[in-house]
């Protein structure tokens, strides 16, 4: 029975008591006003007695529920309510018990995740440092303690108080961007990479520093790069030196019985292979000796007019009002390479488009074509040095374009177009 029904019965019983007692006293000859007053008193006493019986169970349930909620406040979800019945309080107790079971299970799950995360952080070789917005250290795993303080506790210290750290490490922490730094160690120096990320937690700004040792990875990558470079250069040298040696031997034999036409063909072949080898080696020299960009203000229209004299293409969209900020020679070299690649991929001049637009603090230079595009396997390696799918290619064109873009503080990306062809985007920061 619901609480409302119980209270209604108490009220009904009080009214019946009032009517019955007043009528009985009137039959016994009591005065009407006195009979009514005594009837009201009897009804009040009956209502108090019956109401006490109804509210006693309610008070017990509310007290138990209050105790349970206090346990919730203390993160104790082990208490359950034993309340039987079919009224509102019974349903409330059932909801409380269900919530307690669910919260207890969720707390156990969170505890397991925290335990696993703490185990990972404690055993990770990557040094992890968490600071607040005032650069005070909130957490440091064992690798970070070893790197920054020789294994001593540093929680609660300010970053400026880590004076025992190597100077290169302090400079890397103070730098505004991620990057590599080298620590002097015996017998060989160690190369580290620092990455940082900012986030908000409980309304407070935090900064996370991740230090990763890259000495072994970079050494393996360097060896792999050298091996690939040696294979590419060996292939090109063999392709050029073998015909030169063969032609030289043939020419030596012709000295006994000279043939002018054949000698001319031999010398032309030797000259052509020598010129090819010279161009091949010059490409590597330019890649290795790429100077730092000398950035200056660039007006877009004169730059594109100069490009159209070198390679035909179509300008798409209106040019942005803000001037560019780049090295004119290097930017021209990048765009010429990309436009020539589009032509070599089979894109007609009318289908090769260049667009420049402003997005936030960046200028996006986009070269689109309708050539053959690239397969997914080629896309993943197209920007790597020495990788080429062209016959006789050096594999340095796109790698050089990416190197120039990153030297400007930007980036380069490749993707296939849904309508066919390739889209190359170059992001360059604006002068501000």
Explained architecture:
With 432 residues, the protein is an alpha+beta fold. 54% of the residues lie in helices and 17% in strands. It contains 11 helices and 12 strands. The protein has helices at 3-27, 32-73, 88-123, 142-149, 167-174, 215-254, 260-288, 300-310, 328-344, 376-381, 397-407; strands at residues 127-132, 137-140, 179-183, 190-201, 204-213, 296-298, 314-315, 324-326, 353-359, 362-368, 411-416, 422-429. The strands form 3 sheets. Strands 2-1-5-4-3 form a 5-stranded antiparallel sheet. It has a 5-stranded mixed sheet with strand order 7-9-10-12-11, with helices on one face. The protein has a two-stranded antiparallel sheet with strand order 6-8. α6 runs antiparallel to α7 (260-288). The radius of gyration is 42 Å and the shape is elongated. The mean pLDDT is 81.
Short account of what is shown:
With 432 residues, the chain is of the alpha+beta class. It is built from eleven helices and twelve strands. The strands form three sheets. The protein has a five-stranded antiparallel sheet with strand order 2-1-5-4-3.
């Amino acid at each position: 029975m619901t609480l409302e029904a119980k209270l209604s019965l108490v009220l009904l019983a009080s009214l019946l008591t009032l009517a019955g007692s007043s009528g009985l006293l009137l039959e016994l000859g009591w005065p009407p006003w006195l009979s009514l007053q005594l009837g009201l008193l009897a009804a009040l006493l009956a209502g108090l007695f019956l109401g006490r019986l109804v509210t006693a169970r309610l008070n017990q349930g509310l007290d138990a529920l209050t105790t349970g909620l206090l346990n919730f406040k203390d993160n104790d979800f082990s208490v359950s309510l034993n309340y039987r019945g079919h009224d509102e309080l019974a349903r409330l107790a059932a909801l409380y018990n269900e919530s307690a079971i669910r919260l207890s299970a969720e707390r156990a799950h969170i505890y397991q995740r925290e335990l696993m995360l703490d185990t990972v952080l404690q055993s990770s070789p990557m040094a992890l440092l968490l600071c607040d917005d005032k650069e005070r250290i909130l957490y440091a795993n064992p690798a970070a303690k070893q790197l920054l303080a020789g294994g001593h506790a540093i929680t609660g210290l300010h970053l400026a108080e880590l004076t025992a750290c190597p100077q290169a490490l302090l400079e890397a922490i103070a730098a505004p961007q991620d990057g590599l730094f080298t620590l002097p160690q015996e017998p060989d120096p160690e190369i580290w990479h620092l990455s940082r990320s900012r986030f908000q937690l409980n309304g407070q700004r935090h900064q996370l520093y991740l230090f990763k040792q890259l000495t072994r990875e970079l050494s393996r990558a360097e060896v792999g790069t050298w091996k690939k470079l040696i294979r590419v250069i060996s292939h090109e040298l063999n392709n050029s030196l073998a015909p030169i040696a063969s032609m030289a031997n043939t020419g030596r034999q012709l000295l006994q019985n000279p043939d002018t036409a054949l000698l001319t063909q031999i010398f032309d072949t030797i000259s052509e292979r020598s010129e090819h080898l010279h161009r091949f080696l010059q490409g590597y020299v330019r890649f290795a000796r790429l100077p730092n960009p000398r950035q200056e203000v660039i007006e877009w229209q004169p730059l594109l007019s100069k490009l159209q004299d070198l390679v035909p293409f179509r300008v798409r969209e209106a040019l942005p009002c803000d001037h560019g900020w780049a090295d004119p020679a290097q930017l021209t070299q990048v765009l010429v390479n990309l436009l020539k690649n589009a032509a070599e991929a089979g894109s007609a001049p009318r289908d090769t488009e260049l667009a420049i637009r402003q997005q936030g603090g960046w200028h996006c230079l986009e070269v689109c074509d309708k050539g053959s595009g690239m397969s997914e396997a080629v896309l993943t390696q197209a920007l790597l040095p020495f990788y080429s799918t062209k016959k006789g290619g050096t594999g340095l064109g796109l790698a050089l374009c990416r190197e120039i873009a990153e030297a400007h503080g930007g980036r380069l990306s490749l993707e296939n177009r849904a309508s066919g062809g390739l889209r190359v985007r170059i992001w360059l920061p604006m002068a501000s």
